[in-house]
Amino acid sequence: MHDVIRDMSLWIACKCEEEKWRFFVQAGYQLTRLPEVRNWGSIHRMSLMWNKIENLVEALDCPDLQTLFLNENQLKVINNDFFQFMYGLKVLGLSDNRCIVELPVGISKLLSLECLDLSNTRIRQLPIELKALEKLKCMNLESLGHHIRIPRQLISAFLKLQVLRMKSCYYSLGQEVEDNSECLVDELKCLNHLNVLTVTITINKGEDGVGRRRQNAKSTEPHSNLSVCKRTLLPKPSHCNDRGMFKIDGHNMTNPRSKPEAFECINERKLSQVAELVETLSLFAKLESLCLQWLPELKSIYWDTLPSRV
Predict the structure, then answer these.
(1) Are 237 and 205 in contact (CB under 8 A)?
(2) Distance of CA 166 to the CA centre of its chain
(3) How far is Cα 11 from Cα 160, in angstroms, rounded to an integer?
(4) How far is CA 104 from the centre of its chain?
(5) The whole model's pTM is what?
(6) What are 71-95's pLDDT values in tens digits?
(7) Is 9 within 8 Å of 29 (Cβ atoms)?
(8) What are the backbone angles phi and psi of residue 24, rounded to the nearest 5°?
(9) SS3 (DSSP) at 91
(10) Cα separations (Å) of 57 from 44, 67, 73, 197?
């Protein structure tokens, strides 16, 4: 064999071996514990999805790990120190672990984390320490099995958040909060980079059985944050109020299969008290996709024509 060909073959073999250990995939292997790996430190992306792992106790020395998929396991316990040496982790998938009820405080050590998927789990509370995740761009809290407590000012702390998924997430922002939906709206106003939002919003019935706005609603100034949101999913009778964020006038939809009464979303009559602002509002300027579900008697959603791309 020619020396050049030989050297090239050896170089390719070495590169292939190196790349082999950068990607570690053992999805669907029926694992009940973490596998034994010769060199954790060389792994950049790891998938252990579709296994039966229950406990994550030992801290893994994976300083170069960027992606970790643990979706669809049987996780019950994640030790606080498990993420201690994952300095570069950007994507963490924990979805569809229906036995886990507590998120370890140690997850706050993942200072490089950009995407966190907790959908379809049984987590009961988000640690306030998650505020440390300043680089977070995508968070999925959809289909949580129980009411989850989200500390006040936590959502609004993720200033770089671009995608927030909270469909079928029944949340509480604290016992002292009278209206969780309104409080969430106030926090969403801080998310200037939000492009995708799915959220389930519910209200209590008034004396006549119809949900009402709160009389002590704060400022009527329009908020431009929603104008940058490109895709919105509102799976219960809800809409954007005159302040540019979400508000509901309709039937109590605690049961998503119940038929809501006819209602009309934002209209000029409701904006009569702030008529001087109507001409300047452009709430859906960049909206590309809007999905409203379970609203068989919906009449209108906006006083003006929506963008042609919607």
Answers:
(1) no
(2) 6
(3) 41
(4) 18
(5) 0.73
(6) 999 999 999 999 999 999 999 999 9
(7) no
(8) -115, 115
(9) strand
(10) 20, 19, 15, 34
DSSP letter assigned to residue 82: T
DSSP state letters, 114-177: -EEE-TTS---B--GGGGG-TT--EEE-TT-SS-EE--TTSGGG-TT--EEEETT--EE--TT-
Token pair for residue 34? Answer: 């973490």
DSSP 8-state assignment for residue 210: B
Q: Distance (Å, rounded) from C-alpha 56 to C-alpha 62?
A: 14
Residues 23 and 42 sit within 8 Å (Cβ to Cβ): no
Structure tokens at 134: 């300043």
Which DSSP helix (H) or strand (E) runs through 55? strand 55-56
Residue 11: enclosing H or E segment and its boundaries? Answer: helix 3-22
Residues 155-208: pLDDT tens digits?
999 999 999 999 888 889 887 787 888 888 889 989 999 999 988 766 554 444
Q: Cβ neighbours of residue 255 under 8 Å, at least 6 residues apart? A: none
